[in-house]
Specification:
Largest sheet: 6 strands, antiparallel
Order of helices and strands: EEEEHEEHH
Number of strands: 6
Oligomer: single chain
Shape: globular
């Protein structure tokens, strides 16, 4: 959690880093999805051994405008104000991790996998979990969209 629960003003020049991981150890081995942003580089990995799928890795560089949007999503979510001390702990079903460096603030969260909003509402900190849940959804949508745009568009001749 940010010191004193305060969010400092963040500029475009301030350091910015975000990493999200969700995974579990199961009958098909270590299955996970992870993405990480740092210095205009977005890295993505998805490992599923179901039906002998293999590890998928993608890496791309994003524009300053896209970085600004990513930073805006994180900042406006106010995740920096949250505290994961009363969130569900990782379990056999798996875990999620979110790490953010925004200016001089560095936070790291770890919680159990969230199946739906019912899990959020039933937690000891439904408001904090709701912020986490929706931020993760927004980040996933942006990352998947960027990956699809980058790797699926075929140039025309």
């Amino acid at each position: 959690m940010a010191e004193g629960g305060k969010v400092a003003t963040v500029t475009e020049k301030d350091p910015f880093y975000v990493r999200y991981y969700v995974g579990h150890q199961g009958q098909h081995g270590h299955e996970f999805l992870e993405f990480e942003y740092s210095d205009n580089r977005l890295r993505y990995a998805n490992n599923s051994n179901y039906r002998n799928d293999s590890l998928i890795r993608k890496e791309l560089f994003i524009s300053d405008l896209t970085v600004s949007e990513l930073k805006r999503i994180v900042t406006e979510s106010e995740i920096i104000k949250e505290d994961d001390s009363s969130w569900p702990r990782k379990n056999i079903i798996g875990k999620q991790e979110l790490e953010v460096k925004l200016g001089s603030t560095h936070i790291s969260f770890e919680t159990a996998k969230i199946g739906s909003l019912v899990d959020v509402q039933g937690s000891d900190d439904p408001e904090g979990m709701r912020v986490f849940y929706y931020l993760v959804q927004d980040l996933k949508i942006l990352v998947f969209s960027l990956i699809n745009l980058h790797f699926k568009i075929k140039p025309t001749h």
